[in-house]
Amino acid sequence: TQLLEQSPQFLSIQEGENLTVYCNSSSVFSSLQWYRQEPGEGPVLLVTVVTGGEVKKLKRLTFQFGDARKDSSLHITAAQPGDTGLYLCAENSGGSNYKLTFGKGTLLTVNP
Amino acid sequence: DAGVIQSPRHEVTEMGQEVTLRCKPISGHNSLFWYRQTMMRGLELLIYFNNNVPIDDSGMPEDRFSAKMPNASFSTLKIQPSEPRDSAVYFCASSFTGLAGVTKGDTQYFGPGTRLTVL
Asked: Which terminus of chain B has fewer Cβ atoms in its 10 Å neighbourhood, N or C?
């Protein structure tokens, strides 16, 4: 089973700052998903990246998939308090299309 | 549109008691997943149903855990007897799987979870 490492584990910043969080593995990802989980809620899918080097943008969020498909990053520009939450990356594990392996996440707090 | 519905949202019980968690998937979805989330282990898949049939239950931790899906609109996860180490947030998620089977990147929609505390 592929182990996903996310860093940092915790991040507390002020509104308006930029930040980057990371998801890494020793093995190649077939595809990678990023989720945001708000307090008291379930994870919500933000994006799926499939191709090495791929960059996707979702408003102030930029997702990058490493060329070797062993790492990914999420960059948030001008963070807002509404961005507060647990950011999880997930990968289809064991050759299965349905079985997602999740990292433990980065808990982001954006202070007003 | 209603999302995935889970009940109860919070459950506090004593060790040894039976606990039943309930899930109503999104209408029209034919795949259903039960997950458990803890600080130590993160989010883990417990069991996966497709068209009401259990496909993969390899994540179910012990025989104390059982899950059923009697119809397309309802599933239960039962723990009997419950133990303090079962304390966690349990999520149900659903998705639509086409005839070709689940494809990478199929969106799973998660419910709000049930926070279980076993004393």
From this structure: N
